[in-house]
Specification:
By secondary structure, this protein is an alpha/beta fold. The protein has a single domain, classed as Rossmann fold (3-Layer(aba) Sandwich). It has an 8-stranded mixed β-sheet, sandwiched between helices. β5, α3 and β6 form a beta-alpha-beta unit. The longest helix has 19 residues. The chain is globular and about 50 Å long. It starts with a strand and ends with a helix.
């Protein structure tokens, strides 16, 4: 069963979805242009493995606080949110999971060691060190990343995303996902209406505006010491498959699970394969409770 409530952390108010109980907390970070609803297919599985699963609307998104200004969305603040949320939830064991921008924030929190982690799972988001190198030497990756540069323009990206009732948000899923039916209509409608809320388009895009140094130049130099699983849908429209190569140099204990036929929206259109990859990895690393194996 998934419940929804609000929680205070790092001076902000976050709306969270929650499943399971206890002080072993799995924190799930969504990407752009999503919300906490991104994880509905994963939350029950992780709860069955003994985790208290928490999926927040990240700062600037949906029903969470929306601080003003580009600087409020710098990775230092986003990583601090992660640490504060774990603390506010009373977490003892800590599993961090992220997709897309949530994955980038998860990489950053793990590398910066803002909070002790027992495990890290990232989906279709490479370590910034991998992406930063590839985008500079690969024309195809540079062209696929055109929107990152477009989002730097003041005002215009917001207008484009909100035009025609935020039609672009719907198309970003239906045109680029392997199985359009994998995103429930209600979830897609929530994403569409969220970006139309006052100021939300800007706060969402500010993730791109505030973190160009991390994305392009890998300002994160620290190595990740937490065991890490990277799950990758091979038909990613925005990130070249070569982003799966070289991540191990930034991680002490690295595992890669590639999913053929799955898109960038891997946790939707390959939910069962994603869940099985997580279950296998969590059990291998002693991060699944005994009751899950019974």
């Amino acid at each position: 069963m998934i419940s929804t409530r609000r929680i205070e952390a790092n001076g902000l108010s976050f709306t969270i979805d929650e499943a399971g109980a206890g002080d072993d907390v799995a924190l799930l970070l969504h990407g752009f242009p999503e919300s906490r609803l991104a994880w509905r297919r994963q939350m029950p599985v992780l709860a069955e493995l003994g985790w208290r699963v928490v999926a927040p609307d990240m700062r600037g998104y949906a029903d969470s606080s929306r601080p003003e200004g580009v600087k409020a969305y710098h990775v230092d603040h986003l990583a601090a949110d992660v640490a504060a949320l774990f603390d506010a939830l009373g977490a003892k064991r800590r599993l961090l999971i992220g997709h897309d921008w949530g994955g980038m924030v998860a990489w950053a929190a793990a590398a910066m060691k803002v909070t002790p982690l027992d495990g890290l799972i990232v989906m279709n988001a490479p370590n910034p060190g991998v992406y930063g190198k590839l985008v500079k030497r690969s024309l195809s990756q540079m062209m696929a990343s055109w929107y990152v540069m477009f989002f730097q323009i003041p005002g215009l990206p917001e207008a484009a995303l909100k035009a025609n009732g935020a039609r672009a948000i719907v198309k970003s899923f239906t045109n680029n996902i392997a199985d359009p039916a994998a995103v429930p209509p209600g979830v897609l409608e929530a994403y569409r209406t969220n970006i139309l809320k006052p100021g939300v388009a800007t706060t969402m895009i500010n993730y791109y505006r505030a973190n160009t140094d991390m994305v392009w130049n890998n300002s994160l130099k620290q190595k990740v010491t937490a065991p890490t699983l990277l799950i990758w849908g091979e038909k990613d429209f925005a990130l070249h498959i070569k982003n799966t190569e070289g991540n191990e140099q930034f991680v002490d204990d690295f595992t890669l699970a590639r999913i053929p036929g799955a898109s960038h929206w891997v946790q939707y259109d390959a939910a069962e394969q994603v869940n099985q990859a997580m279950i296998k990895w969590l059990r291998t690393h002693g991060l699944a409770h005994e009751r899950a194996a019974a």
